Amino acid sequence: MNRTARRLAKAILNGFDAFFAEYKNITYGAQGRFERADWQDVQTAMGQRLDLYKQKVISVADSARDITGQDLRDRDLWQQAKAEFARIIQGHRNFEITQTFFNSVYCYVFAHQQIRDLHAFVMHPAPQLSALPGEDVLLRFAFAHDATATFDHILDNCGFSIAFENKGRDLRFLSQVFATEFAPRLPAPEDVWVEMLESLFFRNKAAYVIGRFVSGDISLPFILPILNNEQGGVYVDTMLHDPDDISIVFSFSRSYFMVDASTPSAYIDFLHDIMPHKEVFELYSAIGFPKHSKTVYYRRAVEMTLSSQDAYVTAPGIKGMVMQVFTRDDFDYVYKLIRERFTPPKTVTREHVRHCYALVKRWERGGRMADTQEFNNLAFDRRRFSSELLAELRKEVPSLLEEHGNVLVIKHCYIERKMQPLNLYVQHCTGQQLRSVMDEYGSAIKQLAAGNLFPGDMLLKNFGVTRHGRVVFYDYDEICPLTDCRFRWLPEPQTDEQVLSSEPWYHVAANDIFPEEFSLFFSGNRHARDVFEKLHGELYDPAWWVALQDRIRAGYIADVFPYRKKQRFQQRSI
Question: Which is the catalytic residue, given 245, 371, 475, 477?
Answer without folding.
Answer: 371
